[in-house]
Write a structure and sequence with these properties.
The chain is mostly beta strands and 85 residues long. The chain is built from one helix and four strands. It holds the Pfam family Trm112p.
Amino acid sequence: MAVTLDPQLLDILACPSADHAPLTAGTPDDPAADVLTCTSCGRRYPVRDGIPVLLLDEADGGRPAADPAGAGDPETDGDSEAGSV
């Protein structure tokens, strides 16, 4: 079933990732899919009962979300200098 959203709503919806790109209905391979696809990162957000679920945790595909806190980056972890004097 194809996504049927008000065109004005679709005009203002954007991907919740950091780049905030516009969304399009369906996917490039299946324009009738019940998803909204980000035009920048390619994430696909489900549309359930006519309601777009714009949560990064619910998205499929696309690039992985960047870690804004830098967790796991050894250069930004405070422990890299521990023990050196």
